[in-house]
Specification:
globular; six-stranded mixed beta sheet; 28% strand; 18 helices
Length: 712
């Protein structure tokens, strides 16, 4: 039985009412005056890493403007447009001495004073563990730290989103962190945590913020702050390189409900208007280098119910007037750290350059750190180490030669900058074969992240050569280790060796699982910084030539850089548009002609990764259901044709619920054929024929009776 709502019944009972009265009754109203378009700006930072103070540049290193200049530039822009200041993680951790010596509290205070609106967590926010993050860092911060893809025992461990008003618009900020985080921090600090697919989580939250349900949060504009980004080699390829980066492409292809993407983690410079997959529009995607060296600026124009225009660019804070409030916080932090940091701990004869931005190269400073750890653990009672290795990301700065403390003098603050993590150092037993496996794992799978090669530092009693075995698009796929020599003798794969590594590597960090196989673990109780300062004090006048080179690349194979040389971070690329967005999704049917009862297999391609897609059969219409696209944007359905479906032209339509992609494929349904007569069918035909004869006779009788009646 068809049920009619009370409203419909009342409407039908008023059929005689005037048109104006009826329209008013059923809720038709005069359209509201259209609101004026509103433009807002997002000012973005990422990977600040506690770079509080201004550090002037040199011929080989760019200036670090510092917090005061950074927020001075931000302040100068606030009057231009309604403004929000957002960050994509790693504000703290791996920080310079004035911030790190005080547990990064000065950096948090700077962000508070500068009016930071929101930040995603980065992997370095977990450096001191989840407990420290939620019990100290987040309570001190006056801005929310967001992590939609961080779970604790199956429940969200952090807030997923934050909404505030900017220029009369509700802006929703969604934060996610790289899925690599468990490999980048100490496992002891994140027990019970899991880091799920950041794009899938971001798409889910963005859909929630635009589903029309006020109970779960609603936003006019959704901004994704992602602590993940494109790798340096992809950035060199311009807009399309960033758009198609092997790790970052799932972000650039995320849901169309996301209006802007602020990225981080890879310390790169890019600012592009990128196509939204499946739609004839673009959105800004940005990463603002590192350490305050760039400020990102995004503008978004909202008109009606959508973003109609946007821009993305990078600005240089170096010439900005310092913010006085922030400058005072920085000055206090620097003063508090000066006395401790100025103490000399050693000396060098020449500069040990920094290698943080070229982790695929060998660096003298990395080998120095490893050599110091070997020296401090070689005694029988301290581990009995025979060789040592250090991950390149664990060495965060070089050692300069010239400075106010005197030529060649190394201060405690300089040593701290080299080893800021305070990792424990352990000695384990590994076989020669396991050591070789670890060296081969310097080639990193594409799926792991944006650095395809990580060159381990090693103690200066160990040397080897290597060559690439395979390559894809110029990137190594594997390496072969040639002539590994320990103390001048060949490394024996079958022998056992005592190996010193930091606790991070000992847990398989940075995707070196071979190190996690170590047995007979011994620790001295000294951390990496203590071992470095002890080694510097015991060995004055260290020379880079004693620590580099220890490895060589086989002839004919490019090294991928200038090993041990100074690093100049890439200059910001000139903003440029990617090719215009187009609806690229397609749908294919297993057959294009079918019959009632058939099953049609439907494959949709080129949807956004992890996008929810609905399928409908027309012209019934019949809702087939929804499914989530794969990471490659592929979605599949089976459509079962009912026995009662009408013959004729039909279509199968797929709609991307995140991107509004709408594609369809034609389907012709043929009528079931009339079966050839059988014995049963002949009997049925005879029965029908007799019935028709009988009906004809009755009609004839009725006609005659009627004539008889008229004649009476």
């Amino acid at each position: 039985m068809l049920k009619t709502s009370g409203r419909s019944k009342r409407a039908m009972s008023l059929a005689a009412a005037s048109a104006v009265g009826l329209s008013a009754f059923i809720g038709f109203a005069a359209p509201a005056q259209a609101a004026e378009p509103t433009t807002i700006q997002l000012l973005t930072i990422n990977d600040f890493h506690g770079r509080l103070a201004n550090v002037l540049g040199s011929a080989t290193t760019p200036e670090v403007p510092g917090a005061a200049k950074l927020f001075g530039l931000i302040n100068s822009l606030r009057d231009d447009l309604p403004t929000s200041v957002v960050a994509a993680g790693d504000l703290i951790g791996a920080s310079t001495f004035p911030s790190a010596i005080d547990d990064d509290n000065p950096t948090i205070d700077v962000m508070n004073a500068g009016g930071l609106t929101a930040s995603s967590v980065g992997n370095h926010e977990f450096d001191k563990g989840y407990v420290d993050l939620v019990n100290r860092v987040i309570p001190r911060a006056e801005y929310p730290y967001l992590g939609a893809n961080v779970y604790l025992n199956g429940q969200h461990a952090l807030e997923s989103y934050y909404i505030n008003e900017v220029g009369g618009l509700k802006v929703g900020y969604v934060g996610v962190v790289t899925v690599q985080t468990p490999t980048l921090v100490s496992p002891d600090g994140i027990v019970g945590l899991s880091f799920t697919d950041p794009v899938l989580e971001a798409n889910k939250v963005a859909a929630q913020l635009k589903d029309g349900d006020a109970s779960n949060g609603e936003a006019d504009i959704v901004v994704l702050m992602a602590h993940e980004g494109a790798a340096e080699d992809s950035v060199a390829g311009g807009c399309l390189g960033v758009y198609g980066d092997s790790t970052f492409t799932s972000f650039t292809h995320s849901s169309a409900a996301i209006d802007a993407i602020v990225s981080g983690h890879t310390h790169q410079s890019y600012a592009y208007e990128m196509p939204v997959p499946g739609m004839a529009k673009t959105r800004p995607v940005i990463q603002a280098n590192q350490y305050s060296q760039r400020l990102g600026k995004i503008t978004l124009t909202f008109d009606g119910n959508t973003v109609t225009n946007s821009t993305a660019e990078l600005l240089d804070p170096a010439t900005s007037a310092p913010d006085p409030t922030v400058a005072a916080i920085v000055a206090t932090a620097v003063t508090n750290s000066t006395v401790l940091g100025a103490a000399p701990v050693g000396s060098v004869t020449a500069e040990f350059p920094v290698g943080i931005q070229a982790r695929g190269n060998e660096w003298a400073i990395n080998n120095l750190v490893a050599s110091g750890q070997l020296d401090q653990t070689s005694a029988a009672g301290r581990g009995g180490a025979e060789v040592a290795f250090v991950n390149p990301g664990g060495v965060r700065a070089g050692i300069t030669y010239a400075g106010p403390e005197g030529a060649g003098v190394v201060t405690y603050s300089e040593a701290f900058a080299v080893q800021p993590f305070s990792n424990d150092v352990v000695t384990v037993t590994l076989t020669g074969a396991q050591i070789l496996d670890a060296l081969k794992q310097q080639v990193q799978p594409f799926a792991v992240g944006g650095r395809p090669y990580l060159h381990l530092g090693n103690s200066n009693n160990f040397t080897y050569s290597y060559r690439y075995l395979a390559a894809t698009a110029g990137t190594p796929g594997a390496i072969d280790i040639i002539d590994p020599m320990l103390n001048g003798a060949p490394l024996n794969p079958a022998a056992s060796y005592r190996v010193t590594i930091n606790s991070f590597l000992a847990a398989g960090g940075d995707n070196f699982p071979a190190f996690a196989l170590g047995t007979a673990k011994i620790t001295t109780g000294d951390n990496d910084l203590t071992m470095l300062t002890n080694y510097l004090a015991a060995n004055p006048g260290l020379n880079p030539g004693d620590y580099f080179p220890l490895t060589t690349v086989a002839p004919g194979v490019p090294a991928g850089g200038v090993p041990g040389g100074p690093v100049t971070p890439p200059a910001p690329l000139t903003p440029a548009d990617c090719p215009a967005a187009v609806a690229t999704a397609a749908v294919a049917l297993s057959v294009t002609t079918a019959k009632p009862g058939d099953t049609i297999h439907v494959v949709g391609t080129d949807f956004a990764p992890y996008e929810t897609v609905s399928a409908t059969l027309f012209s019934e219409p019949l809702a087939v259901g929804t499914s989530v696209a794969s990471a490659d944007g592929v979605v599949e359905f089976d459509v079962v044709l009912g026995d009662t479906i009408l013959a004729g032209d039909h279509s199968v339509q797929l709609i991307g619920l995140g991107s509004d992609i709408n594609v369809s494929a034609a389907l012709v349904v043929e009528a079931l054929p009339i079966l050839a007569a059988t014995g049963g069918q002949e009997q049925q035909a005879l029965t029908v024929g007799l019935l028709l004869v009988l009906l004809g006779a009755m009609a004839l009788y009725a006609g005659r009776r009627r004539r008889f009646d008229l004649a009476a």
